Model the fold of this input.
Amino acid sequence: MSENESRFQAISHITNRKAMPVATPEPLSKIWATDVFNLAKMEESLAKNAFKAVKQTVQTGVPLDAIHAEVVAAAMKDWAMSKGVKFFSHIFYPLTNITAEKHDGFIVTNSEGNAITEFSGSLLIKGEPDGSSFPNGSLRMTNAARGYTAWDPTSPAFIMHTENGSTLMIPSVFMSWTGEALDKKIPLLRSNAAMDKAGRRVLTLMGETEIAPLNASCGAEQEYFLVDSNFANTRPDLLLAGRTLFGASPAKGQQFDDHYFGAIPTRVQVFMQDLEDQLYRLGIPAKTHHNEVAPGQFEIAPYYEAANIAADHQQLMMTLMKATAKKHGFMLLLHEKPFAGINGSGKHVNWSVANTTQGNLLDPGSTPHDNLNFLLFCGAVIRGVDKYGPLLRAVIASASNDHRLGANEAPPAILSVYLGSQLEQVFQDIKEGKIATSTKGGEMDLGLAQILKFERDPGDRNRTSPFAFTGNRFEFRAVGSAQSVSGPLVAMNTMLADSLNWVADALEVELAKGNDQATAALAVLKQLMELHGNVIFGGDGYSAEWHRIAVEERGLLNLPTTADALPYLRQDFIKELFANTGVLSNVELESRFEVYAEQYMLTIEVEAKLVIEMAKTLVYPASTHYLADLAMTNASMADLGVEMDNTIPTSIATETNAMIAAVAELEQAIAKHDFDSIEQHMNFCANDIRGLMDKIRSHADALESEVADDLWPLPKYREMLFIK
Ligand code: ADP
Ligand code: MG
Done:
């Protein structure tokens, strides 16, 4: 069967597809968190003191002692076995954007040859996968290959089912033999602790006496594409790179805006509901789903949770999304830019910090007292984005997200903060000294009436901002759809910790002058705005004018590619930020730079090889086949005395030759290996290799619109995006 036949077969398979049999839906109350060993289940099965100990660990992060861990392990095993589980696995989060697991049976045999089950506290607490098989950058050097996984009791264990078996999954951290973080969870936990410590300093200085532990929260909106597997399986680029490397734009794309929030296709809705039921069983609070802007694009958003749990749930959700889609005959694409010419996919990371005594510190609240805390925390975020913008850009840098950022559909690669007009005015007034404090009749008048009137305005949205305040949280909108949310959360927590420490230092100075808290806070905020107010921007982030102003007048950085952004992880001010807050040592940070740089270059290298292969083995044969047909037709027509117009064959020949010439150039480029530094190599990938890939694509796409449709081997955009 030739390739083009498989394309037509795919269409016929989809057209004649029978709806998948689905289970009758069950009520939420019956399925919610049934597969999670959460606090409620522990309370049922644990003795009072053991439950108290584990609950304290879950709620405050204090370590769980060995005796109680033993008790929890036993209860966890019993619970899992009662649900038919025979295997358990530590699940951990290496530096790739996916999860890793190593499965072990509960089974051991005794001297009589009987199978018994065993699961001790020590097995629960520590596992020992081979560290060398995971990317670890320069940490590879440190004491060979050994790596440890260790139970994170703050994230609940859960059961994953397949048709004929179930496995108990235990969320874990992953570290090297020498104790360095090799994963995305350890820095997330550390950054939360650093933010908590700095936040308490500020709240204490502001006169708060009772301060519960502060925790970051995260709610992530996940965009994705669905393509029928019959199409996806005949596209080598979708299979291996997760995006189309070729494909001419269809006559109809998203220009009618008819997909966004439109009626969800039934087949997709069935998939979504199936997915959501699985998420509910795992205690993942899926909340909204809808069509997105591009045809074939959708979004799912769970309700927000504590950042550490949200990050684990996000990973689990991405895994389940792909697996469930497959069951429904779709390939689910998490890639940030699967199709050229239509919108790509992002992951908006909604982030706030809160505790049980002061509530959400990014919520303006309804009293002046709340307002001051809010203004200080919000100000601290503004300072963080200004000072550490390049870090925020670096943690969302990837070969795939580079296609989306700054492409006039997604936030620019310049980090600025959007506050909304009212709040921006409040901060401007503070900067200009227009908001003062006074004492009237013994009662403090904070003069903050205008802040009190501050209203959350959901209509006041700026879709072009990479980092926007949305009423009671910040929304980091530049994060890529395929990325783990941990990197962005670590960056936000850590920059906030640093800024809150700066605020606390400055408050101490102001308070030492004998100022009251309100006066001190406003003086600190005035200073902060003078130093960092330039990062606030409420206009059109897509405009060329902003790109000029941001760089020339505001001193902000425009870092369009990963090659521009990642090297910031090696700069002193970023190294100091992580070392001072205790989130990542210099060695750990350097290893991350190396791993991410390597992933970036490998991704581009794989794509480049695919481009060469597809151009040679799919596009070239189709074009030459058509040329041969045309030549034959023209010769026969000439025999009849009819002269055919040669425009099309000439154009096809020209494009084909140009494509093949570019392929030769790309082959030469990927053979180059002598680079002076990682940075130089990354730049070569970003500019030379990518440039050549684009060049080949432009010729191939031109050919797609000229070669006879029945000879074209690859499913076309219109088919993949519109046939469901
Ligand atoms: P929109 O599309 O309007 O931005 P959604 O409702 O789709 O909003 O998603 C908003 C996300 O933000 C949800 O995951 C929601 O739970 C989350 N969220 C709401 N409040 C907070 C908060 N205080 N902190 C963190 N995330 C929040
Ligand atoms: Mg949003």
